[in-house]
Amino acid sequence: MEGDSGTFSGLGNGGGGGGCGGGQIDSKVVQTFQKSFVQVQNILDQNRLLINEINQNHESKMPHNLTRNVGLTRELNNNIRRVVDLYGDLSSSFAKSMDASSEGDSSGAAKSDGKTGLKRNRPA
User: Fold this and answer.
1) Which region among 5-14, 18-27, 78-87 has the lowest average model confidence (pLDDT)?
2) Where is this region: Disordered (predicted)?
3) Of 1, 3, 72, 103, which has the fewest Cβ atoms less than 10 A away?
4) What are the pLDDT digits (tens) for 54-70?
5) At what angle do helices 63-102 and 27-60 cross, to 10 degrees?
6) How far is CA 123 from CA 81, 82, 113, 120, in A?
7) What are the DSSP calls for 57-82, one per residue?
8) Is-above-0.70 flag for pTM?
């Protein structure tokens, strides 16, 4: 995924709309997906650095470094939650865009109750 900014480039101009109700994916939707995937990749890159630092601190067995790992682990867990939330939002956005394209409406409007019904709830 790194450096792959053209992942959805064929979708915004009608190059990837086949099988989705015949409509093309709106370029705004594609931009939203790209933005979300960039956010996810940035968080995952940060997580890799956090994990490396946590491992180094653990191997050092120095009390200060082990104490620091508590905060680093919390940060890592928060980042993982953010990635899960971003993927959940992406899933909902994708479902909305597919619903809209199958109805001949590319506005991405939600159901009348405003929910897609696809996002699962997880305990806090």
Assistant:
1) 5-14
2) 1-25, 95-124
3) 3
4) 999 999 999 999 999 99
5) 160
6) 11, 14, 23, 10
7) HHHH--HHHHHHHHHHHHHHHHHHHH
8) no
